[in-house]
Amino acid sequence: MSDFFPLTKQVSVNMGGDPPTFVSAWLPFGTPESVVSCIQHLQEWMVPKTTEVVVVGIRYMMHTHAQLFKRLEVAEAMRAFISHHPGGIEEMRLKENGAIRDETDQLKEEREALEAKYKGAEQENSQLKKDVDELRKKELETEYQRQVDEMFFFDYHFCMKKNGIMHDIPSLPSDDEDAIPEGPPR
If residue 51 lies in a helix (H) or strand (E), which one and from where to where? Predict the structure, then answer.
């Protein structure tokens, strides 16, 4: 090891315990002995954490092992099926193609239904726009007629005031003025 790391030295550290545990560490030259004593103080912390990490690693490997065997079982079952049913592959391919065609047909029908809904919504939207335009036109006509009526009424009253007419009853001369004072014809 010293060939790869020429500036390091191997230090054997007694971690204590029953039975005694020795750890071999490669430390750079000139490392004080206080570092070695710090490593010994970390023993209480490191052993439980190391154990926990090892347990987690073992559980992960067991889980991976179980998954691997499940995959191998599936692969073996597929291989056995294929070897016993040489036409099975073609049958599976035909079923898959049929399923794909069915799904394609279903998607086409859904698309056509959506297009029909879209066209219906467009027609309804255009009809609503026409209705709104007609209502606005009627509203404008009504407002215009109201303004015309107000203007006529205002002009009428202005004309009456200008000509000194106090009452709204016209007094027009009649051709029958002579007949009225004399009384009814006999």
Answer: helix 43-84
Crossing angle, helix 43-84 and helix 33-41, to 10 degrees?
A: 60
Listed residue (30, 29, 26) closest to 13, CA to CA = 26
Query: 25-30, long-range: CB within 8 Å, 24+ apart, which pairs?
Result: 26/1
Q: How far apart are the C-alpha atoms of 29 and 10, rounded to whole Å?
A: 9
In this prediction the pTM is 0.33
List, for residues 137-153, the tens digit of each pLDDT value.
Answer: 999 999 999 988 888 87
Q: Cα–Cα distance between 16 and 11 in angstroms, integer?
A: 15
For the chain, the distance separating the N- and C-terminal CA atoms, rounded to the nearest angstrom, is 158
pLDDT tens digits along 161-171:
777 776 666 55
Q: Of 81, 17, 69, which Cα lies nearest the Cα of 44?
A: 17
Angle between helices 43-84 and 88-162 (to 10 degrees): 110
